[in-house]
Structure formats: structure tokens, C-alpha cells
Amino acid sequence: MYQNRKEGGGFVETQEMERIYDKYHESVYRLAFTYCKNRADAEDLTSEVFLKRFAYKKEFENEKHETAWMMRVTGNLAKDLLRSFRYRFSVPLEEAELVYHSPEESEVFHAVMALPAKYRSVIHLYYYEGYSVSEIAEIIGKSATAVQTQLYRARNLLKKTLGEEFYYENAGLSQCGR
Question: Which fold is adopted by the domain 14-88?
Fold first, then answer.
């Protein structure tokens, strides 16, 4: 599947585009949303990531490398957007109220979204997407030790925000997908 493209590269075929989109759309969107904190920008970033992927001419060794590439491009584009003049000096429109299964999920979600971007992204990749520390390190281009440190610091910030009792009653962020 990863080695059967035409010699010399070229754009991805329609069927392959559908497979890639179906496989990565949700993960790319959620990671973009953790950075941008609004749906419109997350959707724009998601579209941009897929345009880059469909135009990417090199082959991936395997699915793991493709996944890492998708997450890395998403993070990089999100960081570029956050640094842009337009984003820093615009006022976001009020987003529609999000639907949660329980008040605790809403509280956890808002606490995670309030974290600095570098902590928010590792929390998202670890708890919501289920990546290991070493996979996250590869995706964000940092050492596994740096990722562990960021997770540790993020958890401590969440404990302060949510309170020790809430944090331990709910086993940390286990309700978020791990």
C-alpha cells in the first residue's frame, strides 16, 4: 500500500486519498483543535494538512511513519497559525456550546484546553490519541525524556486546576481514552 505508487512520485490517487482521509481526519482535527481552541481554525488546519499530504511525493516506509508525519505537520501548521499576525490580533467568534457526557468531562476538557500549547499537545497525543511517550517524541521532534517531563508538568498543572480530590477520584485523565 505504501510502496505501490508510480515511479517518480506524483499526486495520491483518489482511492488512496479516501483511505488517508478516513484514517487520519479525526486525529488531525482533534490535534488542531487542541492548539487553536476553535472549530473554524481547526477545520482550516485540517484541510491544509490533507492538501500537503496529498501533494507529498515521497513514499512512507510504513503506516507508523505516515502517522508521525501527519501529526508533525498538524502541529507545525498550528504553531505557524498561532504565531501569525492574523491570529494574534483577532477576536474569535463565540463557539457553539460543546456537548459533554458528564460535567466532569467538561471540567477536564476546559482544564486541558487551558494548559500551555506544549503541554496541551502531549496530553492530547497521550491520553486522547493513545500514543506512547516514544511515539510522541518522534511526532513532536523531542526526546522521550522531554515528553515525559512535559507530561509530568501538565499533570501537575491539571491537579492544581482540577484539585487533588477530583484528579485522583477520576484516575487522572483515564476517562479521556486511556
Answer: Rna Polymerase Sigma Factor; Chain: A (1.10.1740)
Closest CA to 81 of 114, 37, 113: 37
- Mind listing the pLDDT tens digit for each residue in 51-62? 999 888 788 889
Model pLDDT for residues 100-133, shown as the tens digit of each residue:
555 456 778 888 888 998 899 899 888 888 889 9
Helices 39-55 and 14-36: angle between axes, nearest 10 degrees: 140
Q: In the chain, what is the straight-line distance between the N-terminal and C-terminal CA atoms, in Å?
A: 29
The pTM (predicted TM-score) of the whole model is 0.54
Given the candidates 1.10.10.10, 3.40.50.1980, 3.40.50.970, 3.40.50.300, the CATH classification of the domain at 103-176 is 1.10.10.10
- Using an 8 Å Cβ cutoff, are 92 and 38 in contact? yes
Q: What is the dihedral of CA 5, 8, 13, 15, to 10 degrees?
A: 10
